From TrEMBL:
Name assigned to this protein: Cytochrome c oxidase subunit 6C
Family the UniProt entry places it in: Belongs to the cytochrome c oxidase subunit 6c family.
Membrane disposition: Single-pass membrane protein
One GO BP: mitochondrial electron transport, cytochrome c to oxygen
Pathway note: Energy metabolism; oxidative phosphorylation
Annotated localization: Mitochondrion inner membrane
Major subcellular site: mitochondrion
Cited function: Component of the cytochrome c oxidase, the last enzyme in the mitochondrial electron transport chain which drives oxidative phosphorylation. The respiratory chain contains 3 multisubunit complexes succinate dehydrogenase (complex II, CII), ubiquinol-cytochrome c oxidoreductase (cytochrome b-c1 complex, complex III, CIII) and cytochrome c oxidase (complex IV, CIV), that cooperate to transfer electrons derived from NADH and succinate to molecular oxygen, creating an electrochemical gradient over the inner membrane that drives transmembrane transport and the ATP synthase.
Quaternary structure note: Component of the cytochrome c oxidase (complex IV, CIV), a multisubunit enzyme composed of 14 subunits. The complex is composed of a catalytic core of 3 subunits MT-CO1, MT-CO2 and MT-CO3, encoded in the mitochondrial DNA, and 11 supernumerary subunits COX4I, COX5A, COX5B, COX6A, COX6B, COX6C, COX7A, COX7B, COX7C, COX8 and NDUFA4, which are encoded in the nuclear genome.
Key words, A-Z: Membrane, Mitochondrion, Mitochondrion inner membrane, Transmembrane, Transmembrane helix
Length: 102
């Protein structure tokens, strides 16, 4: 009696049928995630960048940093002066290089 109530087992192709179903579900899930990321993250980010660069002036920003004597410009000038002071005496005492005479 109980044998008649139980469904017949699938003995062949079980892996293939389950994989087919899971591949379709995984594909639909990944497309949903991609669409959600595009609409929720990428598009708002693109709009914010466009709005920012609409009124952005790179030269104006550079001049404002230079006038404020920003740390990075001062460090570069001090480093260049330090290197010049260190290496200038070395070049004065080294003999000048010339190609070998035949």
């Amino acid at each position: 009696m109980s044998a008649a109530l139980l469904p017949k087992r699938q003995l062949r192709g079980l892996l293939a049928s389950r994989l087919r179903k899971h591949i379709v579900v995984a594909f639909l899930f990944s497309m949903g995630c991609a669409a959600g990321y595009k609409s929720g993250v990428a598009e708002p980010r693109k709009r914010e960048y466009a709005e920012f660069y609409k009124n952005y002036g790179a030269m104006k920003e550079f001049e404002a940093m230079r006038k404020a004597e920003h740390q990075c410009f001062g460090i570069v000038q001090n480093l260049a002066a330090l290197i010049f002071d260190i290496f200038t005496p070395l070049f004065l005492v080294l003999p000048s290089w010339s190609p070998a005479q035949p």
